[in-house]
Design brief:
By secondary structure, this protein is an alpha/beta fold. Helices cover 42% and strands 15% of the residues. It contains 14 helices and 13 strands.
Length: 389
């Protein structure tokens, strides 16, 4: 670690904390940086689900009465919140060394604050809007407009940062092509302590899961998750059950999951990571059907770290032990991979053990925090050189 600690502001335009992927990512990063002696402040909206970790600070904008949305997607209230976030960032960054901004709204707010304070901004990609934004709209015309708008923001927002973090290997050339400076690949991590103590047997008893193999999906039910691929694959199988776990309401997926008989399906809503962890542990094989993901699906580290081989669509697959790649949209191949893992107990356990060992030993937030420090150092030194010239 550097000789003196930094003051790092994590700019997060969402409710915090929660079990959504971006929030989990910011939490893990902030906790790891704080453990290395830095002062970390998460600047976010005025609400969250549960209490934040006490190792770092949380600074909130005022709440809008009755508004507590944590899921992603367009929203008429968010622009008001983001203006308030820009004001908060201006106050915080006046005494900070670096602002680390996530997604798209937070970097825009951070750039406005930078005009007043000069505090450098590191942009952290989680996805590209040209691929994600159309998922929130219905109809060909609306989707085309959303894709165009997302592409315009892709070409405008990331490149204005002083440096950029590519969350996955596939994101690095994308950010470089979009004109970002100083792009560094720093994947997400896990805290191994979050993965120990899982009680899958308790959940199996509580949910009355029988002895058949169970495929587990743990994540939100938004359209970009491509859950119809998973359901289509499960319909082609006769034996395995499907356990779907989310911190968000399932909505229409309750009805859509009725394509499987009652004894082969469970849809559960959880309130904490501990509950999520236990439900993942109750499964035998995990599934990640998402077909487009320039970022890095945090859930993949969790399922692999808990020893569950994970069948992934190519668009969200990462080169990790235990991650099984299937071509995007190929429901038959997805079903075949699930069936093969469910039927071969020896192979499944071997892959799970490899996955668990690799993630817990090589994908820790402790190691990632050191990589982030190096990025911060380069940006701060560059700023000093520019000030002297």
């Amino acid at each position: 670690m550097r000789s003196s600690p930094l003051t790092i502001v994590q700019a997060a335009a969402f409710g915090f904390p929660s079990l959504q992927g971006s929030q989990v990512y910011v939490h893990g990063m902030s906790r790891a940086l704080a453990s290395r002696g830095h002062r970390v402040v998460v600047a976010c909206y005025g609400y969250g689900e549960g209490e934040p970790d006490g190792s770092y600070e949380v600074a909130r904008i005022p709440s809008v009465p009755g508004y507590r949305r944590v899921r992603s997607g367009p929203d008429p209230v968010k622009p008001i919140l983001d203006v308030a976030l820009a004001g908060l960032l201006a106050r915080l960054s006046a005494r900070a060394d670096i602002v680390h901004a996530h997604n798209y709204e937070a970097p825009i707010a951070a750039y406005l604050a930078r005009m007043l304070t000069g505090c450098p901004v590191v942009y952290n990609n989680h996805n590209t809007l040209s691929e994600e934004l159309p998922q929130y709209f219905q109809g060909a015309r609306a989707k085309r407009l959303a894709k165009w708008t997302g592409g315009a923001l892709d070409r405008t927002v990331p490149r204005r940062a002083d440096a950029a973090i590519a969350i996955s290997e596939r994101a690095q050339p994308v950010l470089e092509e979009l004109g970002c400076r100083n792009v560094t690949h720093v994947p997400p991590g896990v805290d191994p302590s979050d993965l120990v103590g899982a009680d899958g047997e308790r959940v199996r008893a509580k949910l009355a899961l029988d002895e058949r193999p169970w495929v587990v999906y743990a994540g939100n039910p938004d359209a970009y998750q491509d859950l119809e691929i998973l359901l289509g694959a499960m319909e082609q199988l006769e034996e395995p059950g499907l356990l779907m776990v989310s911190a968000s309401p399932w909505g229409d997926w309750e009805r859509r999951a009725e394509c499987l008989p009652p004894h082969r399906r469970r849809l559960v809503t959880v309130q904490s990571w501990a509950e999520t962890r236990d439900h993942i542990a109750a499964g035998d094989v995990a599934a990640l059907p998402r077909t487009q993901c320039t970022g890095f699906p945090i859930k993949l580290l969790n399922t692999l770290g808990l020893g569950k081989p994970t069948v992934c669509s190519s668009g969200s697959w990462q080169s990790l032990p235990g991650a099984v790649e299937v071509a995007n949209g190929d429901i038959g191949a997805f079903a075949h991979s699930l069936k093969r893992l469910c039927a071969d107990d020896s192979m499944r356990k071997s892959l799970g053990k490899q996955a668990q060992t690799h993630v817990r030993e090589n994908c820790t937030w402790e190691a990632r925090a050191a990589d982030l420090e190096a990025v911060y150092e380069r940006v701060i030194e560059e700023k000093k050189k520019l000030a002297k010239s």
